[in-house]
Known about the structure:
The protein is α+β, with helices and mostly antiparallel strands. It contains 16 helices and 20 strands. The two termini are 14 Å apart.
Amino acid sequence: MAQLGGQGQGQQGQPILILPEGTNRLLGKDAQRMNIMAGKILAETVRTTLGPKGMDKMLVDSMGDIVVTNDGVAILREMDIEHPAAKMLVEVAKTQDDEVGDGTTTAVVIAGELLKKSEDLLDQDVHPTMISMGYRRAAAKALELLDDITLERNDDKTLINVAMTAMTGKGTEKAKEPLAKLVVEGVKQVEEDGKVERDHIKMHRIQGATIEESKLIKGVVIDKSRIDNTMPKKVKDAKIALLKYPVEVKDLETDAKIKLTDPNQMQAFIEQEESMVREMVDKIIDTGANVLFCQKGIDDLAQHILAREGIFAVKRVRKSDMERLEKATGANLATNIEDLKAEDLGTAGLVYEKKIFDEVMIFVEESPDPKAVSLIIRGSTKHVAEEIERAVEDAIGVVAATIEDNKVVAGGGAPEMAISKGLKEYADTISGREQLAVSAFAEALEVIPKTLAENAGMDSIDVLVDIRAGQEQSPFMGLDIFQGEVTDMKQASVIEPHRVKKQAIQSAAEAAEMILRIDDMIASSSSGAPDAEGMEGMPPGMGGMPPM
């Protein structure tokens, strides 16, 4: 058993023990320091990946599978992180990815820098609550300042530039513009009433070709094949039936035994089953469908009849693919074969099966106005194709956010520097120790242009000085990594969605605030947190809490 605190003593001077043996506990400043250290180390881990010239990380799991990437959220997902405070920063990255699709590294780096600055304030005996309150005020003011430097645009040129900015530095350089155009075309195709459902854009990663051979299919691509090779390989003017119900005799839901006393009864039983299957297939044929996608199984006899009738059929299609087929073809998914009618059929100009590299796929194309599309992502090797897919995923997220919000900001560290400048002026209007926290928040934002410069091999101090001087003339002055100089990012067409910056600042501030308010950490021995011996060989703070 472990003692909960130093105060609880029994009448005879014996300690009162209420926690199980092996429980680790950190109190006050020790808990804060450990959490801050964990956050700083996590931020330092992904910091070198930021920007167009960021480096990649190679992650090898216990099975020997390799991931090579500089995508922040992919790195943090693959890493086996134990420390509870570090896990909170991983959640920041995941939220950023879910909300926008890009800016994950930015969010984690800002959170790490906020924690680093708070450590200096704790050394000056500023109470954690005061730091949290100051950070909260600073974050609210930062979002106001961000709105002041926001541009309202979502034309095609802006969308392409936003996509290219998101993909820069992620292995897509030689085909960045063609890929950006595919992404913009695809996102605009699935847009409905100003909203973009990212799930309606499906990516298929296929190795064995160059990035330039990636293409957009205005329709659905399914990684399945026909159920019978005698079925037609290509169907023009397709009438498509979508069926959730299996085209086979269902098993009884209760245990039952049928006792047969005569061979003729067995024959009648088999004939009855066949008759039921034929009835199902006849219902499909009667609707006029020449293509069938079934979410469940299709009986062998049904397959034979469908093939004989020249119907192109696919079984065990994923639920997500069925939803995309509904959106692309206008078909209605029939949950029961009795409900399938001619008016439920969807249309497509062409449905065909094709082999790409070593994968057989089914293409559903040429529908009138498909609200689901597919992107075929090509790469020379598996790892190249995977990284291209991650870059395109980021691009889809930022283009969708720009279409929905109609707001963009400059890139290259310009917004962070403009907000930092505004926050320093705002701090002068605040009295008390909160002023120190607001100033620290302002300085923390400078980590983004500083890191961009460091990752490009430039002198970060010189760059920060130059950007500060440029910001006196325009809030759009930032660092052009490729030219190696401070320039107007708006004119250089380096732009990002407003939502990326808003979400990054907001989530980083909230995560830092939450971590700072923790003054007591209690970890049970069964929590999976390693002890001090288990932390040997790993960076401090990345494992669990050491024992008291």
